[in-house]
Design brief:
Blueprint: H1 3-32, H2 36-67, H3 71-75
Helix pairs in contact: 1-2
């Protein structure tokens, strides 16, 4: 994976996290107004954005782990 691809994926994850936060704020407002179905819809949408962001971060972490070296690796 190129640095450019990793940067793009990182920005995409950041956008998903921002969208998740927005959905959660909207969900809270709906629950305060006792609009439970709308609350649930935004809560699930927020969770979906979190899941997608975590998937991207997991992929980046696995890729990084393949290239990462510990000081003890060089001693072997």
């Amino acid at each position: 994976m190129s640095y450019r691809d990793a940067a793009t994926q990182t920005l995409n994850a950041a956008q998903d996290l921002q969208r998740a936060a927005t959905h959660l704020r909207v969900a809270a407002a709906h629950l305060q107004a006792a609009e439970v179905p709308r609350y649930a819809a935004h809560l699930l949408a927020g969770r979906g954005h979190l899941v997608r962001a975590h998937a991207v971060l997991d992929e980046l972490a696995v890729t990084h782990a393949a290239y990462s070296h510990l000081p003890t690796d060089e001693e072997r």
